[in-house]
């Protein structure tokens, strides 16, 4: 279930899970943390949008859900692998810069800046489909090939999800009721298990098409929601 509307040439869609998350935060975290988290997300997505604006590549579609925002550049302007890396890292970069500014001003312990720190660190992790994972995939695709870059990034992501899940369990034991990191780890694991990598695609399309067709590699360049 989604609510959609247009802002100029950009199509915006809001998933039901987005409103469910805000309701959950308001009920169990309080209005102050909910507002701070929302502002942190705006800072994060503003980093992505700002990077696209600097590159002259306005977004063609923005999709919001409980786990974040997926921004798809307009078809009028395709991004290089290097530009895709820059756009992907601009989101967590904006969060970390905001937190650093708060620290310098002596406000580092305030809710907004703590949310920025958490979002910045989380989305810097080289795990798909987080921004750090998308940036790593773009770098590997540029240096190697799209197919090999995607495959290697999947294995790097899979190797990091397990210790992240263990850390999530430790957090639950030390802070009963704090399931955020564990839930995120489970989501990332499910995403990776369901992701169609080039080897899987090749097996599925054996005798039909080749996975390195001319349109291979066309994908979203920022955002962290499947």
- Unreliable sequence segments: 207-221
User: Which strand-content bin applies to the residues?
Assistant: 5-15%
- Overall geometry comes to globular
Rg (CA only): 18 Å
- As a percent range, the share of helical residues equals 55-70%
Termini Cα gap: 15 Å
Number of helices: 8
Strand order of the largest sheet: 1-2-3-4-5
What would you call the structural class?
A: alpha+beta
Output mean pLDDT: 80
User: How many E strands?
Assistant: 5
Topology as a string of helices (H) and strands (E): EEHHEEHHHHHHE
| Total domain count | 1
Structure, explained:
By secondary structure, the protein is α+β, with helices and mostly antiparallel strands. It contains eight helices and five strands. The chain has helices at residues 16-28, 30-54, 81-104, 111-122, 131-143, 146-174, 180-194, 198-204, and strands at residues 2-7, 10-15, 59-65, 68-73, 222-223. It has a five-stranded mixed beta sheet. Strand 3 (59-65) and strand 4 form a beta hairpin. The longest helix is centred in the last third of the chain and has 29 residues, at 146-174. The protein is globular and about 45 Å long.
Identify the notable features of this structure and list them briefly.
alpha+beta; single chain; 5-stranded mixed β-sheet; 226 residues
Please give the structural blueprint:
Layout: E1 2-7, E2 10-15, H1 16-28, H2 30-54, E3 59-65, E4 68-73, H3 81-104, H4 111-122, H5 131-143, H6 146-174, H7 180-194, H8 198-204, E5 222-223
Parallel strand pairs: 2-3
Antiparallel strand pairs: 1-2, 3-4, 4-5
């Amino acid at each position: 279930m989604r609510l959609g509307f247009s802002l100029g040439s950009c199509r915006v869609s809001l998933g039901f899970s987005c409103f469910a998350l805000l309701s959950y935060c308001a009920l169990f975290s309080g209005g102050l943390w909910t507002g701070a988290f929302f502002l942190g997300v705006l800072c994060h997505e503003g980093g992505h949008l700002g990077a696209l604006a600097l590159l002259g590549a306005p977004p063609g579609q923005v999709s919001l859900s409980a786990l974040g925002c997926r921004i798809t550049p307009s078809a009028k302007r395709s991004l290089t692998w290097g530009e895709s890396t820059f756009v992907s890292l601009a989101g967590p970069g904006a969060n970390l810069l905001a937190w650093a500014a708060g620290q310098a001003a002596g406000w580092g312990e305030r809710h907004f800046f703590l949310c920025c720190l958490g979002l910045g660190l989380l989305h810097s992790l080289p795990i798909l489909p987080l921004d750090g994972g998308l940036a790593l995939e773009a770098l590997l695709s540029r240096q190697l090939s799209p197919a090999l870059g995607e495959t290697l990034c999947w294995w790097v992501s899979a190797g990091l999800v397990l210790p992240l899940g263990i850390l999530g369990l430790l957090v639950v034991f030390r802070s009963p009721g704090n399931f955020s990191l564990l839930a995120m780890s489970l989501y990332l694991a499910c995403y990776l298990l369901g992701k169609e990598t080039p080897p899987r695609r090749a097996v599925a399309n054996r005798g039909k098409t080749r996975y390195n067709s001319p349109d291979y590699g066309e994908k979203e360049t920022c955002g962290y929601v499947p």
